[in-house]
Amino acid sequence: MKKLSARRRHPLAALVVLLLALACTGGLYAVFAPADKAQADETAQSLTIEEGKKLYSVGCASCHGTGGQGTSDGPSLVGVGAAAVDFQVSTGRMPAATSQGAQVPRKKAVYSQAEIDQLAAYIASLGAGPAVPTKEQYGPEGADIAKGGELFRNNCAQCHNFTGKGGALTHGKYAPTLEDVAPKHIYEAMLTGPQNMPSFPDSTLSEQNKKDIIAYLGEVNGEETESPGGLELGGLGPVSEGLFAWVFGLGALIALAVWVAARTAKAKKS
């Protein structure tokens, strides 16, 4: 008993007991505690990436390379981010048709949204890039429509026209109409700059600026929107307005001149 009592009073006895208690507590927690949420999320993300890789190998690798490095038939996808994938595939521009024109047109999507998310996750794993925007980023809440109109006219109207009706570019290319385009896709297009369009990162147009532009387009292209100036002539701006002035305005003046001349000639004969 004296020997046992002496061991209990040993200076290291308390430390040994504490270490044993911590080891037992940790072991019991590892056995009975629920699975770590972060680990579960990581596993789910890994599965999503793996499924996306399978889809990529079947539908994209022939043009963009087996590892997304790009080929002579398609650019590299390393670093383009999930937003670029979501835009291109959701709008049906990718996969592209075998025979292409000056640019890839919008068409019906081939993949479901779940499959698009898987493809986006795989491409995002190849290199950091813009993420898919959230509804808070492109929704109309808190947007300044007037500011959006100013930003659109300064940065976008040169190609897409004043109300987003679209317009022609060089060598058969064109700026597509922005009517009936989902707000998320407009945001993604500004963020990634698809095809002929320049990109507008947050350093150029902030999140709020993008939100304002999207709200402006939703306002001018809404179903109940009326043209305050009367007949809008397709909303194509000075080209259609100038054509209208030349054809109908100048035509009316010519017709009036012919009528006056005919009346004068008739009067002289009389």
From TrEMBL:
Catalysed reactions listed for this entry: a quinol + 2 Fe(III)-[cytochrome c](out) = a quinone + 2 Fe(II)-[cytochrome c](out) + 2 H(+)(out)
Binding-site list for heme c 1: 60, 63-64
Transmembrane segments: 243-262
UniProt-listed Enzyme Commission number(s): 7.1.1.8
Subcellular location field: Cell membrane
Gene3D superfamilies: Cytochrome c-like domain (1.10.760.10)
Species of origin: Streptomyces calvus
Name of the protein: Cytochrome bc1 complex cytochrome c subunit
GO cellular component: plasma membrane
Annotated PROSITE patterns: CYTC, PROKAR_LIPOPROTEIN
A Pfam family hit: Cytochrome_CBB3
Keyword Transferase found: no
